[in-house]
Predict the structure.
Amino acid sequence: MSWTKREIVLNAFEEVGLASYNFDLQPEQMQAGLRRLDNMMATWNSRGLRLGYPLTDSPAGSDLDQDANVTDEAIEAIVGNLAIRLAPILGKTVSPDTKASARSAYMALLSRRSQTLEKRIDVSAIPAGAGTKYWRFNGDPFLLEERRGLTVGPDDTLDLES
């Protein structure tokens, strides 16, 4: 079973020092926590950290009892960073340990989820070198762009008419 948004918000409030067994959180506080959670996850999503969290197009479209659809490896980073975002609206400060663990969990999450982007190099700007004498034939001392053939999808065929 996945974590719900309510459980994440409650854990973040506990991290700030408002444990639900000691304090009764008001519905307005829970909604404020949900808005902060949605904003944080939208920011992470825009930075390329896509965790499967269901983003909404309006604040009214979010539900506290909805599944967060994030893996367990992401929970510590989400709860810790949400606690840091909730503390100022409560007039509290989070402990340095919470800040350190939130940052550490976020960086670990980034390193696990990051992917190396492939880049194509413009070979027409790279000199061919002393051993390659392309310039004798076309007057160009740079590497030639490779010619690519026609490609079709795996389920398509290419019909050539004569």
User: Anything to note?
Assistant: The longest helix spans residues 27-46. The chain has five helices and no strands. The chain has a mean pLDDT of 81. The two ends are 60 Å apart (CA to CA).
